[in-house]
Amino acid sequence: MDDAAVYRITEEIALIQTLDFFTPIVDDPRSFGRIAAANALSDIYAMGGTPLVALNIVCFPAREQELLAEVLLGGAEKVKEAGALLAGGHSVEDKEPKYGLSVTGSVHPERVITNAAAREGDLLVLTKPLGTGILTTAVKGRVLKEADLGEAVESMAALNRAAGEEMQRTGVSAATDITGFGLLGHGGEMAQASGLALEINARAVPLLPQTLEMAEMGLLPGGLHANREYLGKRVEFSRDVPGALADVLFDPQTSGGLLVALAPGRVEGFLDGLKGKGVTAHRVGRVLKGPPGTIRVEA
Questions:
Q1: Residue 16, in any domain of the structure
Q2: In sequence order, what are the residues at sequence separation of 6 or more whose Cβ sits closer than 8 angstroms to the Cβ of residue 20?
Q3: In CATH, what number is assigned to the domain containing residue 33?
């Protein structure tokens, strides 16, 4: 259930390998490239690693070369920001555009961070707000305009680099990045892999502007319903959790933040370290003894 593959080369060096690509989440090609690249790089950070080399994955209509150039420039900007090397890639002609990266990173074999080592009593910290799936669905439904997604676009395009660095500096138990399965889906994977349960404080979870309003209007992506159906009875909500807020916790994210489990005594240092790097993170719950993979959501 981990976010990437790890291959040990020596006693001090292990490689982290991942890839991710998808169809445009926004209309602006440069923003799409930035978001897709940040999303692919996130798996390296979730494992506690440093990105080294990235390769472009491109599926694009042959007639749209100018748009493709913008997408690639956006991706290159993020790879450069990550301190990695963009070393080419592969393309195929496709009627439906798709873009992403294959990324190789490195980590010390004894400092790999998995999603399988959360401990009873750990607190949970989330490093980005939720809502990207709902907000982009609202744009497709013409309730919002893409110009209304400024904060959401910047959130999706932001690297999880600072969080990855602070995890190594602070020392954490486990981590995962929040993407298509939503907060509850990826949190459930962490709980299952760790043999424990989670408790989430719904009102403590940060949300992007207008997310709750759009959820209350029923502008929910198909992936949200699929996540809810997949998790089924493994998630229990207290009666005072509003329905729309519950929906947001299932919302599939694109290039979301990291969900980090760490000992209570290390939380303030972790949050302060992130704040010093311009990242506002939030305590959103805790790890409990209970049926593995289950989640209790309180208001």
A1: yes
A2: 36, 39, 40, 43, 100, 101
A3: 3.30.1330.10
What's the pLDDT tens digit per position in 126-156? 999 999 999 999 999 999 999 999 999 999 9
H or E stretch at 136: helix 132-140
Question: How many residues are there in the chain?
Answer: 299
Distance CA 105, CA 13 (A): 10
Q: What is the rounded CA–CA span in Å between residue 267 and residue 262?
A: 7
What phi and psi, each to the nearest 5 degrees, are found at residue 181? -90, 0
3-state DSSP call for residue 167?
A: helix
Match 């873009």 to its residue by tokens.
99
HSE-up of residue 121 (Cα within 13 Å, Cβ side): 4
Contact 220, 213 (CB under 8 A): no
pLDDT tens readout for residues 255-280: 999 999 999 999 999 999 999 999 99
Q: What is the C-alpha separation between 267 and 263, in angstroms, rounded?
A: 7
Query: Crossing angle for the helix pair 29-46 and 65-81, nearest 10 degrees?
Result: 30
Whole domain around residue 82: which residue ranges? 5-111
Q: pLDDT digit string (tens) for 185-201?
A: 999 999 999 999 999 99
pLDDT in tens, 66-83: 999 999 999 999 999 999
215 and 276 share one domain: yes
DSSP strand pairing (98-107 vs 85-93): unpaired
Q: Is the pTM of this model over 0.85?
A: yes
Q: Which of 42, 54, 49, 58 is nearest to 86 (CA)?
A: 54
